[in-house]
Amino acid sequence: MLKIINILHQNNLILRFIKFSLIGISGILVNSFFLWILYDHAELEIYFASPIAIVIAIFNNFNWNDRFTWNENRENRSSTYGKRLLKYYFSSIIGALISYLILLILTLEFNWHYLLGNIAGILIGTVSNFLLGNFWVFKNKIATDLKMSDNKVE
């Protein structure tokens, strides 16, 4: 357990997860707002309104995470903004699918209010989004280069 805590501390993962969670709260608000607009006011079916709200919230979260959560390695990123955005959307698909399925199950099978089901789904998908963001999307080029040079046979 101490080894895990030491690794988390050395990599600033705890602080980074707190930042990620703060951005996630803004994403919940963006997602819920657009879901409310699309479902209650535009009268789109939940099957369509939710994915649109998710796509908008992912874009919001990516930009804030890019500038705030992983800002310390901006100059040393292993990919460009566009590639990071594509990676972020791809990695967020897992969390989004989890979120979407939880929303549908809680709303349609257990009669939860759709906004509560939406928030429950988002919370459950958060961990996979953070881990993929940290170790793939916002990967530091220097750390990658160092790891590669450590693996070379001399």
Written description of the protein model:
The structure is a single chain. This protein is mainly α. The longest helix has 29 residues, at 13-41. It has helices spanning 2-10, 13-41, 46-69, 81-109, 114-137, 141-151. The mean pLDDT is 84. α2 (13-41) packs across α5 (114-137), α3 (46-69) packs across α4 (81-109) and α4 runs antiparallel to α5 (114-137).
Q: Determine the strand fraction and express it as a percent band.
A: under 5%
Our count of domains comes out at 1
Helix share, percent: over 70%
Residue-averaged pLDDT, rounded? Answer: 84
Write down the overall geometry.
globular
How many extended strands? 0
Number of helices: 6
Write the element-wise H/E pattern from the N-terminal end onward: HHHHHH
Broad structural category: mainly alpha
Radius of gyration, taken over Cα atoms and rounded to an integer in Å: 18 Å
Major β-sheet annotation = none
The residue ranges in which pLDDT falls below 50 over 5 or more consecutive positions are none
Termini separation comes to 34 Å
